[in-house]
Amino acid sequence: MSKRIFGMVAAVCVAAVIQVGLAAQGRGGRGGRGAAAGGDDEAVPTEKQFAESAEAQRLVAEAMKIAGSDLAPQAKMFCTATGPLRLALARQAAGLPPVPNATIEPTRVFDNMYFIGMTSQNTWAITTSAGIILIDTMNSADEARDVIVPSMQKAGLDPAQIKYIVISHGHPGQSDHTGGALYLQKTYGAKVLMNPADSSLVLPTQRPDRPLATPDMAAADGQKLTLGDTTLTLVHIPGHTPGTMGVIVPVKQRGTPHAVIVLGASQMPTRASLQQFEHVFNDFAKPQKVEAAVNMHAQGLQDDFAQLETLRKNPNGPNPYLQYGPERFSRWMDIMLECGRARLAAMGR
After folding, report:
1. How many CB atoms are located within 10 Å of the residue 68 CB?
2. pLDDT tens figures, 233-277
């Protein structure tokens, strides 16, 4: 098992690596496009195509207009040839060595939602009055047993209370989101949900040393998943894979209700995938007043490691994940779509 990050020295080292990774991500290098077998996100323009497309640059200008001064950094992150890249791919694109994989201190992000995981990928644990819902299960049975379970226990959560597991997406021949599901399914009786578009691709190609869980339930766009006092909304956001899912979670911050969206991935390489994101944002996220986004690879959408450290150091202070509010976050989503349109335009789509 990877060593845990403890102490100020380790935190400072990780923070320094993060800043380099975010800078690399902002440059939008194409080398780490991140496509896996079965995914669609090979389809991004070159930096030259993106820069030289008049229509793409017109759409970038529209995104910057929506951003104004307060969301300009976010618009610059989204409006690149690749769009946001997770940390490993951003560093790869910049020709930098990978970040050592280590377990992150489990962190209570909201009253009822916890970050559990590693520098490479993570799980979200949502607590309810009738048990726990997990989103994703990391890479393997070993990581489920040696990272997810002890991290939950350290955070005061009982793994035996896991009732549902929502798999955000899966890649044929890869297990970075699906690998721990079978262990948790067998050990605790948790029911696994996954979009059939991905499970039908993933299950036939599973690695013998990393058997995957057979889903108990299909996940679909607009589906409600209720456990106790909490109802999640599952949304279909294809692009990274055909069956990528997002989850809208009603959370509380010191008892005050808010809503966040967990984006299984954020790629929209075709017009159909962009239209589906637009539907999800306009028909689900905005009406539910979503005001923050998180994903399944820390550092993909914001400086998660710094924000998690802020919460651990000052749990009673302002929550850095609630920096937008519903109106600003509505613009954040519009910027994401406009930048997606720009990439399609650069590819003549």
Report:
1. 11
2. 999 999 999 999 999 999 999 999 999 999 999 999 999 999 999
Return the CATH fold of 1-349.
Metallo-beta-lactamase; Chain A (3.60.15)
* CA trace torsion 54, 56, 58, 60 (10° rounding): -140
| 8 A C-beta contact, residue 301 and residue 85 | no
pLDDT above 60 (res 50):
yes
DSSP 145: I
Q: Which residue has the tokens 């239209």?
A: 275
Q: Are strands 162-166 and 191-194 parallel, antiparallel or unpaired?
A: parallel
Place of tokens 């009055």: 129
* Rounded Cα gap, residues 227 and 216, in angstroms: 16
Residue spans of the domains in the chain: they are 1-349
Query: What's this model's pTM, rounded to 2 decimal places?
Result: 0.88
Q: Each residue of 134-145: pLDDT tens digit?
A: 999 999 999 999
Cα 77 to Cα 339: distance, rounded to the nearest angstrom: 9
